[in-house]
Amino acid sequence: xxxxxxxxxxQKGIAVVxxxxxxxxxxxxxxxxxxxxxxxxxxxxxxxxxxxxxxxxFETGLEELLxxxxxxxxxxxxxDYQLAMDRTEIVFxxxxxxxxxxxxxxxxxxxxxxxxxxxxxxxxxxxVTKSTVPVxxxxxxxxxxxxxxxxxxxxxxxxxxxxPEFLREGSAISDFLHPDRIVVGGDCEASVEKVAAVYERILxxxxxxxxxxxxxxxxxxxxxTAETIKYAANAFLxxxxxxxxxxANICEWLDxxxxxxxxxxxxxxxxxxxxxxxxxxxxxxxxxxxxxxLASMAREQGVEPxxxxxxxxxxxxxxxxxxxxxxxxxxxxxGRKVTLLGVAFKPGTDDVRDAPALTIVRSLExxxxxxxxxxxxxxxxTGAPDIKIFSNPYEAMRNADALVLLTEWxxxxxxxxxxxxxxxxxxxxxxxxxxLDPESVMSAGLVYEGIGRFASRK
Length: 458
Ligand code: UDX
Known about the structure:
By secondary structure, the protein is an alpha/beta fold. The chain is built from 18 helices and 14 strands. The chain has helices at 21-32, 44-50, 62-72, 81-86, 108-120, 137-148, 172-177, 189-198, 200-203, 223-254, 258-266, 287-300, 306-329, 356-366, 393-396, 410-413, 417-423, 438-443, and strands spanning 13-17, 37-40, 75-78, 88-93, 125-129, 158-162, 181-185, 217-221, 337-341, 370-374, 388-390, 402-405, 428-431, 447-449. The protein has a six-stranded parallel beta sheet, sandwiched between helices. The chain has a six-stranded parallel beta sheet with strand order 11-10-9-12-13-14. The protein has a two-stranded parallel sheet with strand order 7-8. Residues 1-10 have low confidence and may be disordered. The structure holds uridine-5'-diphosphate-xylopyranose. Uridine-5'-diphosphate-xylopyranose binds next to helix 10.
């Protein structure tokens, strides 16, 4: 296999800087669509495995696409910015922006990438921000990259465009290839058009597996507007979840069932059915970080983010709902054995960033609970390394006083409840995702309690 990228020299390709979730998915999908792509990654070990088609994390379908891209010669990875800039004209910036201080994302990786890009630019380049960066970062990037340009290279070679991503972990490839909309924001019309053209086959859905009856919308906006759209989209989704969680908490005291309430209100087209599943709340790398960042941007501008603050508080409280339920059933809690079914922040991923499981483990540990966990993909809970994670759920629940479903993995939805009842010492099942069938659980003589469902607070 030729990993030097010789095949890419024939025409100006696309650079994708950063090989995290977004960058790797993007590089693989763009090469699948026929583009020549150079992935830039500063970690040489990652570069080596990516060039063998091995992704640095699990994402459904990614390994196949990566392997196909690398084998075709249209995709290769390098840690050499100069080589990447010389062979490309459009550069997608996909480096990580982890949570920083005061709600702001940590921009160290973006700053480092910007300087490396600037130092390697000799000809016109369009830099496209995919990383979720605070609104106004386009201006800052222009200045940072501009300041790093080699002597004699005019700042006019540079255009910065915002093109936010809306990928969900676990379905990132499908989200990339079948988006609802593509947003491209910038002041230079020609650059916006060039970036939009990268997505031509997605916009027309003219690739194998494309659905021409569901073509995505293309929205061309100002740069700050595009940057804001990303934050607003995630904040709204987080708001929907916190809203239904608040309704669930009210349902518990009114003898109403939130799953039926959510279904009924979701049938109203103005509301829509999705992101109305009550449970232990949202986690993951985006919602917490982005709502915090938007709230701090608002405060900086003198706007009080009343709704965002409430959405975040509801989510934090919601994680403790299952702890309160355990306290109710297992009083006193100290010394009790509790098994967590799932620790990933959602099914289909091994990601535990900001997972509700972390908060719940900390709270239960403080109360002297003995915790075990089971997860089909996670083997270690970063932040709580002492928690033993079993791959077999029955092994994990041996002699447990209670089970708590935190991630609705398919494996946990059709457990043999007679076997569960025999294996556990106690009989309590807390369904933190409202994903189990209460009748099946109860018919095995077990006690079922969901979030905002009937019989939740008897
Ligand atoms: C999210 C956005 O969906 C995506 O567009 C953005 O680019 C990145 O952030 P992701 O974090 O991968 O994607 O997960 P998502 O599927 O949106 O779920 C986020 C969290 O919300 C999970 O913890 C999930 O369990 C929870 N959730 C989701 C609910 O609690 N209830 C719901 O109804 C939906």
